[in-house]
Amino acid sequence: MLRFGIIGTGRIGDMHARLVALQPDASVTWCFDVYEESAGATAAAVGARATTDLDALLGAEDVDAVLIASPTNTHVEMILRSAEAGKPILCEKPIDVNIDKVEECKEKLRAFDVPLQLGFNRRFDPSHAGVQQAVARGDLGDLELLIITSRDPGPPPPRPILEACGGLFRDTTIHDMDMARFVMGEDPVEVFTMAANRVDPVFAELNDVDTAMVVMRGASGALCHINNSRRTNYGYDQRVEAFGAQGMVRSNNQRPSEVSRYGAGGTATRDELLYFFIERYRAAYEAEIRDFIDQVTAGKPPNVTFEDGRRALLLSEAALKSYEINKPVEVDYT
């Protein structure tokens, strides 16, 4: 039985705690948050102890591993404190939105021998993973084109969240950067970005963009196109399409059901797309937790690493730089 301490019990941390509690070989024993009421509510839901004292959680004998779901700007501190306590770590993405802090964290982690898995949950989505597996098997021949669509349902998040998230490329596109690396099986070496403000004035006020297209080239010559928007009016639009000489494979959007309706109101009408990311990716989140438990209990290294998080952020930084200078940018991973 792997006993978890949950660090951060907001919306995403509460979801993680409940998914951990569903696993037959895991439990949640402690929940930490700076807000006592939040920690208490999640703890009550999963039968754990609540605390506002992080040291109490990290020092508890009945905590075997931690899941970090605190605000992004606390991730580095929580990672290092958890590593110092010797706890295996599953941390939500990103490591941080500041690449210098990520590099500093990387160096400090050399002093500790603890597994650390980054929360790129979309790798564990059954449909997206199916695309990756088809490419890896060679079903398409050599990969030629990869198209990743990621469009959030509107309206935009509250302004305080936008102010702290690091902007579109570091907050949203970073998921797609990781998906690109995952499916392509290589690191993109060149990035070109065009972006605009087409959704809401708040993004321009924050010196950010809300609409973007990113084109990347791998060393193999394969091309990847990522398109992002902060708003749709039809649900959470999440698609991955891979194309090669031998065919195409695509991960489609998901709905509450696959029922088609026929009548005077329309032909083959269907349910709207799932709207919220927790609904759309619930299976992926649970599979991610399942994978972490399996790797830790087997004494094996994580399948999604700190370095994966670092490289996805480097690609996001390259996309932002390309947008700012309006030129392609070569990516340096050293």
What does this structure look like?
The structure is a single chain. Helix content is 38%, strand content 25%. The chain has twelve helices and 15 strands. A seven-stranded mixed sheet has the order 12-11-7-10-9-8-15. Strand 9 and strand 10 form a beta hairpin. It starts with a strand and ends with a strand. The model has no long low-confidence stretch (mean pLDDT 96).
Strand order of the largest sheet: 12-11-7-10-9-8-15
Oligomer state equals: single chain
Can you tell me the residue ranges where pLDDT is under 50 for at least 5 consecutive residues? none
What average pLDDT do the residues reach?
Answer: 96
Kindly give the count of domains: 2
Q: Helical proportion?
A: 25-40%
Query: Given the C-alpha coordinates, what overall shape results?
Result: globular
Can you identify the CATH superfamily of the largest domain?
Answer: Dihydrodipicolinate Reductase, domain 2
Element-by-element helix/strand order:
EHEHEHEHEHEHEHHEHEEEEEEHHHE
- By DSSP, the count of extended strands is 15
What is the top-level CATH class of the largest domain? Alpha Beta
Query: How would a crystallographer describe the biggest sheet?
Result: 7 strands, mixed
CATH architecture of the largest domain: 2-Layer Sandwich
Strand content: 25-35%
Total helix count?
12
Distance between the termini: 39 Å
CATH topology of the largest domain: Dihydrodipicolinate Reductase, domain 2
What would you report as the Rg, rounded to the nearest angstrom? 20 Å
Structural class: alpha/beta
